[in-house]
Q: What sequence folds into this?
């Protein structure tokens, strides 16, 4: 099962440089042309659900604007995880 | 039934202040800063680190790091770092310098800090141009590269060839860790981070002068998009400034980080 | 502590060590080199920092770095080396960290020579480095004074977060005199609040001299200026010799002041009422005392080992109330007491009005003297 990941982009830091968009191996990122950050940039945003939480966008982001999350299966005591 | 929790794969380093930086969109200064902050967090060095900021685009570097910082005169950061490290030998002292600061006006200071084997760490941002002052030729500007002070392209007959600092400093006995890496894609950024980690480890272990040269971009003065600039680094700069380890103290070779 | 026969540069260096200097960064240059050499053996034996830097440029920047840690730090150099240090000195002043710079002045400009001079008065007292800053300048005239005032220099530097220059000439660096050294000062554990030391348990300290907004820079400039006003009020030092009934006032600092004292003694024996005001702080200048003396004396003679630099400051404060004359030797030549005695005798009979530039007549007399036979 593919890992599900997702990202949050912080408006305070994102400068719309688009390096994350170019770097994303799943091509799930785009600049949001409908909105501006307080500094006047179009911020990056996730537009697809196929993010795997690989973190490459955060590695390339010059402004540390991206927080990357991944689903982690939680083990229940005594049970088996399925799926 | 599987329940899941969210695991944070990556978040902003602690050693970073909550400040929007003044760097141009896509500028690799931001990446380098972030890597330093991450390494300092991982090594738990924040409370004993003193940074030395240069003159150049990163003159305000101290605004972005959550640690003690001093501002050096142009090119003099290695001397200032020496002055500090000699009276505070148990603190971690690093400089952050561009190609004008380190390889032009500061050539004497960087050479002699290495000659003396000063236990400081230097992060050298090589983007082959003078950013802050508007795009003049740097000692590392490529042959034929047009800048505001080499409008016809760098003429090696008049201006000489770009200078390779890692190779030069590696010949100095006092150097313990001299490597060149690049920031042009995620894989190379990860290698750069590891190098920065080893450089700070070299300082912690008293292994002599350590420097990580990072091939970087300047989209604004190269007149390219951020992505094009990274491709320029990969295609044009790496052949002139080969990536690699130029000096690695044997004590570091076996270190697992 | 008993008096011992001490050599200038060595005594000054030892005095700095007793005053608790923790780092010396310098570069060899005659006639200050003994300072560096002395420090190179003494400091490591005490576990303190010593580096012979690659140049004076590097040395002053090492001083700047250590100054940011709040520890006592200094350098010593001579005129051409001091010129190289000017950028660093301006940075130290702009960052408001304490440091002591000793200048053992030599003949100049340019490479000049290694003989003693006072030709760096403008450079030291008026700034020398760029921007609006105000160094404190001390001018000792004997080995004992240098010992005392180097210790004072560190105290003042810390008190005012200022750069302090201690200026002597090559004579003083090389001469041997009986003097007394103070006991060793204990190095304090605490550093000032503003110092960098690793941001443990506190907000980070940032030490910089950049204020990119002009309005912010002006606030800093005003702060430095107001601090200077306080220094002017509180830290003036000078010495007086036979001034009570003096009619001819000689003004000289350092070696020039000493030589003038000998001449004055002889002049008094001949019945001439001469006296000496010897500034010890050149900055802040003892202007109040000088202005007071203009009410008493009939003529002023400024003696310097340069082309007339302190002369300008004297003229500024005297404001034409009393005629001012000048006698100087340049190029590394030290005036001898008889020359100055001749000047005092000449002035005792001179009732001519004051000139616009006291240098004018001095220049022609000097020309006759040094080029006369050529």
A:
């Amino acid at each position: 099962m593919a890992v599900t990941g997702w990202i949050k982009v912080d408006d305070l830091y994102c400068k719309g440089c688009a390096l994350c968009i170019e770097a994303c191996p799943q091509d799930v990122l785009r600049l949001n042309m409908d909105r501006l950050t307080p500094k006047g940039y179009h911020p990056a945003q996730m537009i697809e659900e196929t993010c795997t939480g690989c973190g490459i966008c955060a590695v390339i982001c010059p402004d540390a604007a991206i927080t990357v999350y991944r689903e982690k299966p939680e083990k229940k005591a005594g049970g088996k995880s399925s799926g | 039934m599987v329940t899941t929790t969210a695991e944070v794969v990556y978040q902003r380093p602690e050693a970073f202040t909550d400040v929007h930086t003044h760097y141009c969109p896509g500028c690799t200064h931001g990446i380098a800063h972030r890597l330093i902050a991450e390494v300092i967090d991982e090594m738990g060095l924040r409370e004993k680190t003193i940074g030395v900021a240069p003159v150049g685009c990163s003159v305000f570097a101290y605004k972005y790091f959550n640690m003690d910082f001093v501002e050096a005169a142009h090119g003099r950061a290695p001397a200032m770092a020496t002055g500090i490290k000699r009276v505070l030998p148990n603190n971690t002292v690093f400089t952050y310098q561009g190609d004008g600061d380190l390889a032009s006006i500061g050539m004497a200071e960087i050479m002699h800090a290495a000659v003396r084997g000063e236990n400081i760490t230097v992060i050298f941002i090589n983007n082959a141009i003078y950013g802050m002052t508007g795009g003049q030729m740097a000692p590392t500007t490529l042959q034929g590269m047009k800048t505001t002070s080499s409008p016809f392209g760098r003429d090696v007959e008049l201006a000489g060839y770009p200078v390779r600092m890692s190779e030069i400093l590696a010949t100095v006995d006092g150097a313990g860790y001299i490597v060149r890496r690049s920031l042009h894609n995620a894989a190379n950024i990860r290698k750069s981070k590891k190098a920065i980690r080893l450089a700070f480890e070299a300082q912690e272990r008293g292994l002599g002068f350590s420097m990580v040269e990072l091939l970087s971009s300047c989209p604004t003065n190269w007149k390219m998009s951020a992505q094009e600039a990274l491709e320029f680094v990969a295609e044009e700069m790496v052949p002139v400034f080969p990536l690699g380890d130029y000096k690695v103290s044997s004590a570091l070779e076996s270190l697992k980080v | 502590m008993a008096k011992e026969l001490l050599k200038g540069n060595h005594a000054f260096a030892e005095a700095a060590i007793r005053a608790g200097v923790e780092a010396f960064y310098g570069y060899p240059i005659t006639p200050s080199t003994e300072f560096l050499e002395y420090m190179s053996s003494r400091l490591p034996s005490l576990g303190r920092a010593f580096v012979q830097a690659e140049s004076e440029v590097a040395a002053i920047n090492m001083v700047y770095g250590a100054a940011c840690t709040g520890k006592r730090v200094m350098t010593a150099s001579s005129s051409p080396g001091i010129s190289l240090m000017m950028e660093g000195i301006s940075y130290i002043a702009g960052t408001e960290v304490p440091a002591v710079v000793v200048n053992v002045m030599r003949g100049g400009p340019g490479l000049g020579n290694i003989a003693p001079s006072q030709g760096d008065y403008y450079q030291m007292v008026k700034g020398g480095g760029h921007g609006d800053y105000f160094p404190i300048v001390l001018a000792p005239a004997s080995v004992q004074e240098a010992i005392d005032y180097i210790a004072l220099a560190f105290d003042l530097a810390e008190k005012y977060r200022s750069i302090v220059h201690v200026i002597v000439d090559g004579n003083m660096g090389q001469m041997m005199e009986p003097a007394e050294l103070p006991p060793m000062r204990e190095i304090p554990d605490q550093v000032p609040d503003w110092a960098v030391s690793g941001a443990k348990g506190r907000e980070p300290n940032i030490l910089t001299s950049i204020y990119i907004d002009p309005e912010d820079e002006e606030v800093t400039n005003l702060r430095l200026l107001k601090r200077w006003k306080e220094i002017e009020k509180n830290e003036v030092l000078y010495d007086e010799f036979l001034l009570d009934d003096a009619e001819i006032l000689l003004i000289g600092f350092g070696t020039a002041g000493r030589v003038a004292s000998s001449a004055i003694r002889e002049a008094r024996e001949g019945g001439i009422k001469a006296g000496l005001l010897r500034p010890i702080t050149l900055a802040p200048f003892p202007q109040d005392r000088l202005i007071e003396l203009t009410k008493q004396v009939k003529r002023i003679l400024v003696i310097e080992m340069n082309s007339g630099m302190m002369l300008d400051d004297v003229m500024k404060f005297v404001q034409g109330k009393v005629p001012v004359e000048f006698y100087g030797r340049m190029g590394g030549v030290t005036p001898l007491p008889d020359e100055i005695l001749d000047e005092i005798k000449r002035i005792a009979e001179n009732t001519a009005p004051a000139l616009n530039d006291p240098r004018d007549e001095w220049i022609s007399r000097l020309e006759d003297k040094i080029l006369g036979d050529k």
